[in-house]
Amino acid sequence: MRKLLHFIFVLLALAALTWALWRGISHREKDEKEEGKEVPTAATGAEAEHEEFVVTLEKEKIEAAGIEVAAPEKSELVPRRVAYGRVLDPTPLVTLDGDLAGADAAATASRAEFERTQKLLAAGEKTSRKSFETAEAQYRADQIKAESLRRQAALQWGTAFPVDDPAKRREFVDALVRGEAALARADLLPGDIVTDTPRAARLTVVGRDQEPIEAATISPAADADPRTQAQGFIMLVPKAPFALRPGMAITAWLELPQEPRAGFLLPRSAVLRHDGRTWVFVQEGEDKFERKPVTLDSPLEKGWFVEAEHGGLEADEKVVVTGAQMLLSQEMKAAGGTAEEE
Predict the structure, then answer these.
(1) Res 45: pLDDT
(2) Domain ends where: 255, 277, 296?
(3) How far is CA 190 from each of CA 196, 225, 251, 334, rounded to the nearest angstrom?
């Protein structure tokens, strides 16, 4: 009887051990299968690019909101390069103008003394050759100093600074001091090189992108940016629509002497800034509007230039030129968010 109980106990222990091993193996296989499954994620990359942002409005609401659409106007743009910089402090120019005026006055006085002693010596009057040579040396030294300052000014400030005409130079410096004119420097992006001097430049001040300014002259800077080693240009703005203060950050579009590019003129009222990008609404039907990303190339007088091939617009699309912000607000309201102002 005791042997039978011992045998039954051994069978039960073996059965329990077998069940435990089976449970462990089955759970491990289940965990491995779950680990091999892909976790669904939000759409990114190419999927996000094709995400549609559509607003549908009834005809009455469209008319009440004053929404207007128009085909993008065809335009051409001479190739440009973007450069970044600042409005320059005119103080060094004021100092340089004073040094030049002093050097010119000294050269004028020493020249008069040199010519006087030269005439006296030639007439045989009471004067020594030593006095003549001293006057000549002083005149030559003053002349060299004035010429050196002119070269220094030409190197530092380019053609914008009229170094050879004292009257124009003084008028120019006075205009800078009164704020009627300004000088700005803009540097290309690191690694970007322009072999030809740009023939024109259009500037915008940070925060006032809708008021572009035309530069009157542009000349290469004498030195490279010490931090980025980028190529720079000095630009003169004779009359700005608002005061240009020293240190103001600017963006400059440098017009290159090359063949123009085809594209579209996009009105500023059509452009939206949202989620760190620029967008427009295009009409897809009588009551349907889709928000599309666009790439703004350069600012123009009446809006923005968008390149035909890479800007994101097609010639046959109708763009919302009035009421775009309202459409964005409707879209954000439907999504439970808020719209950003341009």
Answers:
(1) 36
(2) 255
(3) 17, 9, 15, 43
Q: For residue 131, is it within any domain?
A: yes
Distance CA 213, CA 248 (A): 14
Residue 224, pLDDT score: 81
Q: Has residue 171 got a pLDDT over 80?
A: yes
- Give the range of the structural domain holding residue 139, as residue numbers without chain letter: 93-171
Domain assignment present for residue 162? The answer is: yes
Q: What is the average pLDDT value for the chain, to the nearest integer?
A: 80
Cα–Cα nearest to 257, from 85, 81, 74: 81
121 sits in which H/E element: helix 91-123
Smallest CA-to-CA distance from 228 within 190, 192, 194 is with 190
- Is 6 among the domain residues? no
CA distances from 175 to 59, 178, 187, 237, 288 (A): 56, 5, 24, 11, 54
2-48 pLDDT, tens digit per residue, is 555 555 665 665 666 565 555 655 555 444 444 444 433 333 333 33
Instruction: Please state the domain count of the chain.
Output: 3
Q: How many residues does the chain have?
A: 342
Q: Which of 108, 143, 171 is the last residue of a domain?
A: 171
Per-residue pLDDT, 221 = 85
